[in-house]
Write a structure and sequence with these properties.
Elements: E1 6-8, H1 10-39, H2 48-72, E2 74-76, E3 92-97, E4 102-109, E5 120-122, H3 126-131, E6 139-144, E7 147-157
Parallel strand pairs: 1-2, 4-5
Antiparallel strand pairs: 3-4, 3-7, 6-7
Helix pairs in contact: 1-2
């Protein structure tokens, strides 16, 4: 399990706490009902429905444990804690990929919150590391296996 600090804005903390509450109440109840239903069908040694429900229960408990671990490491960043003029964790950043003449917008987040599909980039990713502390119009070089890409910082928002 991860052990580093997870920086969140207050609204994201509320979302995660609600998700945990739902997993512990509603989802646990649904799985318990499925297990009870499967048990009612008799012999558990050859009951695929029972095995699937127990497997689902195991996955749910793992999700709950991971979320509890993440929430135990949260540090709330208030808007006043985040600088206006430089790239910092929880800032939205718009950059121009100078190699491909492409504009990209994303949010820099703690590693546990990174999600490429939601445009959330980890502060410890190569791009995240290169951008941290930089200001608007600065150009950063990001070295990846087999290539170097340059990005110009166009906007920073908190």
């Amino acid at each position: 399990m991860e052990t580093g600090i997870v920086y969140l804005k207050r609204n994201r903390l509320v979302e995660l706490e609600e998700k945990l509450r739902n997993l512990k109440t509603n989802e646990r109840k649904l799985i318990a009902e499925k297990i009870a239903e499967a048990r009612s069908h008799g012999d558990l040694s050859e009951n695929a429905e029972y095995d699937a429900a127990k497997e689902a229960q195991s996955h749910l408990e793992l999700k709950i444990g991971k979320l509890e671990n993440l929430l135990s490491r949260v540090k709330i960043l208030e808007p006043d804690d985040i600088p206006n003029d430089e790239v910092f964790v929880l800032t939205d950043v718009k950059v121009k990929d100078l190699n491909h003449n492409e504009i990209i917008t994303f949010t820099l987040v703690s590693p546990d919150e990174a999600d490429f599909e939601l445009d959330k980039i980890s502060v410890i990713s190569p791009l995240g590391k290169a951008l941290m502390g930089k200001k608007i119009n600065e150009i950063v070089k990001v070295e990846l296996p087999g290539s170097v890409t340059e990005y110009q910082i166009l906007e920073i928002n908190k």
